[in-house]
# Entry
Amino acid sequence: MTELSNWKIGGASVSGFSHIEEDIPCQDAHAYNIGEGGWLIAALADGAGSARLSHIGAKAFVDDIVENSQSLNLTNEFDPEKITAFLIKSVNNTSQRLLEGHEPKEDAEPCIKSDFAATLVVVFANSDGGAFFHVGDGAGAAIAADKSVNAIITKPQNGEYANETYFVTMENWDSYLRVTQFGSGFDTILLMSDGVTPMAMAKGCAEPFYAFVDPVIRYLREATPADADAALIGTLKNEKIRSVTGDDKSLVWAVRPSKYKE
Amino acid sequence: MPAEMIPDVVLTDNTSQRLPCVLVLDGSTSMSKRFDGTSAIEELNKGLKVLEEELKQDDTACQRVQLLVLRLGDDDQVQTIQDWTDAADFSAPIIKAKGRTPLGIASRIALEKIEQQKENYRAHDIPYNRPWLFLITDGGPSDARWKDAALDCCFAEAEGKVIIFSIGTKNANFDKLSRFSARPPIKLAGLKFEELFVWLSRSAASGSQASPTAELQLPDTEWTERA
# Structure
């Protein structure tokens, strides 16, 4: 089974044009790992623009999830409920750690939970399939590069307004946690923040926008991991994107050899 | 050597997200009163020109913002000076100062037009931000039923339908203005309409996020004073 889970994985988070101009840190963060048994675990968080420490929150949430997942004892039997329980615990522990551990500067207001507000999209996958776990906006996609089956998508959740979403620091955040499962027919996984969805997803986010996604996947498959991420960063910083969004942009990608796909 | 960017990637905005923004502008006679060599109407019109330039200079705002401009004045009349238009096509109108200040009627029309535009977005599957409504005056409402309209504004805001910014120049009636929104009205320092509209354009472009329950406040800046 291990060769079937031969993931090649990478990702990039880059500051948005408006954040660079206003000297705001990149509020997106991502982390990933290949766990025991070939499990792909990746997490991406987008810190709220309106929250003063969201860049710290975003990084802490994804780092903790990926690090703590090593103790999960994942077996080949996929158990989304077990993973959901793990994620809720991990996020709540991180929130608590942030509140207790962050010393505000002398003249600053004491921290509150919403200072660390961030959206979250996580994937757990092996060769038999997996699931997205998602709060707020951004998106995830499980794709068959040969398009033999339709992509499975976890869409952004925004409520009525596109610029307002749900964060893992809200009191009842776990009621907004959505789980989207996918089967074994997929060789490509993408996670993205809302700075990337306008380009990587088609209108309404019902499917990937293949004029973006296909060349990206094709290149990433062929390149060395270091070259792949350097080119991805170059792409996400391209001047043409200025007219699409001023927001931070993150994309995590994982591909496994198509020939292993059923 | 890695490529500077991945070849053949198409970089387009497939969502066409919109931020609807209504400007309700006071075109009453008092706006033309001259003081220190200028008048509120002159500064307002200069500010609108700056708004046009700022929006067009900012790629994101230019794509995202849609504007509707209403003028109030005359014999308690409200005119649509500029129907919904993309920022890219926005041409600053010149507001004339003549007549009374039917702020109640104007705010009601603004709320109706906002809901119509939301219907339009939904029909075309266009995502949109929570609309912004700016009420800008140098006085206070003159129409008979302005209190009912002000209450409607507060209800609309409480229901999350719109964000209302009420802004007055120095001698505006801030007691009356405060009844149009739960957030306090802002006193424009001097006649700094240009600074106000620069702020509007840049805030529209920032893509800042707020959870559905979060409050958006006008900042304390060089163009605001506490009313």
In short: The two ends of chain B are 60 Å apart (CA to CA). DSSP finds six helices and nine strands in chain B. Residues 103-123 of chain B form the longest helix (21 residues). Chain B has one domain: 19-205.
